[in-house]
């Protein structure tokens, strides 16, 4: 009987320790998220005030956070409009878990590669965007532009024709159709 009581007491004690640890961990995690959230608010206000040096320091602090790293790097993209953003975008892609958001940054990264004349690498990045991604059409329009810049006009026209066969209800569908007409290929 004593053994049973001792076993139950140990089991209850173990459950209490696990529960207390879980509560403490949740409290710690929530406190950390709250601190980072306040930092993000401070960052936004600093950017609005035009103080980019202070904003960059806050961004550096936020890079340590898993939840806020991609967001803070997005702010860096906003600040550094004319800079080489390839490494920042690559870091965002590597840390973003959301598939659709990732596709958006892949397209932006491909554009940066194109801008710095890394056209073949840009095409490889654009191939990572699937038809299911919300930005598929815009990414393929960018791909057609890159193909044209490489004098791969037939490949670009084929891509634009495939896009042009859709209903042309969105801006990028219309743009693909316009580029198709510009290239001299008719439906």
Can you put this structure into words, describing what you see?
Among the domains are: 51-118; 135-187, no CATH class. The protein is 76% helix and 0% strand. It is built from 9 helices and no strands. Helix 4 runs antiparallel to helix 5. It is elongated.
Keywords:
187 residues, mainly alpha, elongated
Give the structure's gist in a few sentences.
This protein has helices at residues 2-48, 52-62, 69-79, 86-95, 99-115, 119-126, 136-149, 153-164, 171-182. It is built from 9 helices and no strands.
**SSE order:** HHHHHHHHH
- What fraction of the residues are assigned to beta strands by DSSP? under 5%
Low-confidence stretches: none
Helix content: over 70%
Instruction: Note the overall shape.
Output: elongated
Biggest beta sheet summary: none
Number of strands: 0
Radius of gyration equals 25 Å
The structure class reads mainly alpha
What is the helix tally? Answer: 9
Mean model confidence by pLDDT: 82
Q: Give the termini separation.
A: 88 Å
Topology:
Blueprint (H helix, E strand, L loop, with lengths): L1 H47 L3 H11 L6 H11 L6 H10 L3 H17 L3 H8 L9 H14 L3 H12 L6 H12 L5
